Amino acid sequence: MARVCELTGKGRQVGNNVSHANNKTKRTFLPNLQNVTLISDELGKSIKLRVSTHGLRSVEHVGGLDNWLTKTSEDKLGPDARKLKRELAKKAKAAA
Fold this sequence. Notes:
Blueprint lengths: L12 E6 L5 E6 L3 E8 L4 E8 H10 L2 H7 L7 H17 L1
Antiparallel strand pairs: 1-2, 3-4
Keywords: Ribonucleoprotein, Ribosomal protein
GO cellular component, one term: ribosome
Family: Belongs to the bacterial ribosomal protein bL28 family.
């Protein structure tokens, strides 16, 4: 399973370990991913996602999963979040 946030697409970063003697060796920085269940009010269901803590805080700050998906552009979303955004758009279009 890839270490990538399903909402934001945030993945691993590469950097260097630097010793006291200034020797540099490659290392990776992994995102802090959590398995969470987010509730979509408009779709009427709960969704299990693997989300970074940064992404989770962003969702809570905006006011929930539905608001966050509608306000975020598709190029910043992960593939699963894009599908959810399209489902929300279809639901909103059918209700209108």
